[in-house]
Amino acid sequence: MADIKLKIKKKLDFPLEADSITPDNFAGKTVAEIKKLPLYYATKKVTIGDFFDVSGKSTEVANTKIIIDGDLSNVKRIGEKMTGGEIEINSAVGMHVGNHMSGGKIVVNGNADDWAGAMLQGGELEINGDAGHYVGSAYRGYWQGMKNGIIKVKGKVGVESMLWAKSSKPANKWPTLYCGSAESFLGIHNHGGTIVVEGDVDRCAGADQAWGNIVIKGKVSRLLPSYKKVGEVKEVQLPNGEVIKGKFIEYSGDHTIKKETNGRLYIAV
Amino acid sequence: MSLDNLILLTGRTISQGVALEGGKASRENVRAAGICTFDADDFKKLDCLVGTPVKVITDYGEVVVYSTITEEGPHQGIIFIPMGPWANQLVNPSSQGCGTPTYKGMKAKVEVVKSGKVIGAIELIGRLKEA
Amino acid sequence: MVEKIRTVKDVSCPFCGTLCDDLEIDVNIKTDLVVEVRNGCQIGTKKYFSSNPSDHRYMKPLIKVNGEHKEVSWDEALDKAADILVNAQRPLLYGFSSTECEAQSKGVELAEILNALLDNTASVCHGPSLLAIQDVGASLATLGEIKNRADTIIFWGSNPVHAHPRHLSRYSDFIRGYFRTDGRNDRNIIVVDPRNTHTAQIADKYIKVNPSEDYELIQAIRAILRGNELDVKEVSGVPIDDIKELVEELKSCNFGVVFFGMGLTQSLAHHRNVDTAIRLVAELNDYTKFLLIPMRGHYNVAGANQVFTWNTGYPYSIDFSRGFPRYNPGEFSSVELLLRDEVDAALIVASDPGSNFPAASVKNLFKHPLISIEPHKTPTSAFADVILPAAIAGIECEGTAYRMDGVPLRLRKVKDAPGETLSDKEILERLIEKVKEKMGE
User: Tell me, what's the ipTM?
Assistant: First the structure.
């Protein structure tokens, strides 16, 4: 793996939009060329070199790894639309990290702000902290959001995570979210996404789910009245092939959408 | 002389609408929007006269307003403060990512204040400038 | 001695989203003061009277010098305002809901020139309704349709007796309609609210819902409508039998409407409360005719959404920083931006965030230069660095406003603008000229 190291060298009073920071954009470029790539700060167009110290070498996309240090909590859109390679972010990171990503891997060693992994089409996003609202969700006005890929959040995800997620059995695409705990409306408008929560979730999990699987190993603050108990299971078989062992109560829903539904929510006994 | 475990709602009243058009710096505005409306039974527990200033406290701030009994009850456990500068010391500024703050539904508690003045809108908001 | 009076009829009231168009205003010809208002509600009437010069009406431009507001010329005030905007790195243009459409259009133009953030009061009000409509659509109607046809009217999280005082008399409750010839007696009014509001007290049915739990109640209604038997005995404080009874009532009416307000948009779940309400209305159309209308608060916030959308593609919370409009409520919403302290100057037009924004965001608003285009002294203008005194649209200048149901109505001019006040549109035009000059265009 060829590494490119970035370190932010200015304090930010406004958000910095860094959608040019992707392995795709860095692949095959020299450090000097990378420094000239555009960033957007408040209303000004600036360059990577204006805000970051850059060192290292790049190679082709799949083997390019970008390591970013410094305080990135207000740096938005890192990894946007990337198709391969890796990004390692050693800080909390701003909004939209990994949005529209279709391949490769991003690891955030800190918290992520809202819209992490929005519209994910593939690849892997790992957040070793909490994430904000709308993790792996669709952007405003889109009725299909995350279609493939895996998001892992060690801590808590905010509201409406996996909004409008859509899977595809023929294409073997199973968008999946693993998280420590979740705020309200987890999996709202779910169309086949898979969600596994290690801990507790807040109200309205699975709201308006058309179909999909939500597995909750902790407690639910309030289950939707439109979900109905089906029975008890000793394990949950997920469509991506994974099996979750443990005793769960199986619920069907959301019955606001259909009288009979394949949508499922599992809550640990 | 305090009440716990209340839920605070905020919103429009016609008097507050009239007062805001009549002059936001006026005493009329204080009387219309610098108030907290209680359910009749809840108010009895406070053991004070109608109009006594009370301090309302939420996780987001506190403010002293005049107490009054609701005409829109019963609503045990709910207090209502008309929208405006006094209510906005108490509301939840978070929008959970959608942009609109959560102006209704905050957990609140209320204390009768021995000596407290309900200050006017300009002075109240002016304190945000100094701070 | 009888004073000479000029009467203006068919005046559109510039207060709330009901936009009543039948006001009559008497103006004293000699003094140009409003002397009588007929047909308006208490609030609209007060607005006309408060346009008369008073100690809280601005007559001349003001600039803050050493903590005091000092009267200056228009040229000086506009120059200072333009300086503030041009030198800001991330200015916010906010408000626009209490003015007419041409002024709103100028606001868009100015935001584009400055690459600024642009937002209107929907951001703290019915923004969630717009978000929900963008996700699941909406079966809307005009108020005239409701007046003439609706026999079942639901007010959900809305209290028109207080917030839209003549709504019930003109459109939704007491008035006789073409198919509702017996007025109130031909209608079934249902109110859903945590409090037994004055509107609930004159309704046929009042459903007391737990605060912040409307979403679950609507989900239960929808699931029962689908033919499901639910596992629960009550939802959100409402017994399951009451919910089933309500479902039958809604299915069997001739023409239903849901009017909804801040009870849905400003409570937890925000736009998802509206999302599920919209879906319920759509699903009821399997059985009967059902529509919904948001109870817009300001008389022209719907207009601001229209004008912003025609020009940029988006109704509110817009960012021009990368040279083209982008939309993302939450990220580009005024309150959130202020809470994160990401704005370094603000131009507030025809609105009062000082009074209406949460305190923590107002604190940050006041940290930076503030320009207020405003007729009256408010908790926003009182702390502005530059005050540009405005003539009041709908009283002192004409224009177009959009009612809550999207119907455009013409605002009338009943008297001249007092003192040195100018219309919002003219102020923004002059400001645009100054800004262009300073930016070297």
Answer: 0.96
